[in-house]
Amino acid sequence: MSPRALTIALLASLAVNLFAIGAGVGVLVAGRLPGPARGQPVGPVALWRAGDTLPDPERQAYRDLLRRQSMEVRDEVRRSRQARREAFESLADEPVDAPAVRARLDEARRLEMQARGGVEGSLVNFAASLPPRERAELSRGLAEFAPGPRPGRFGMGRPGMGPLHGPPGGPDAP
Question: Pfam families recorded for this chain (predicted)?
Answer without folding.
Answer: Metal_resist
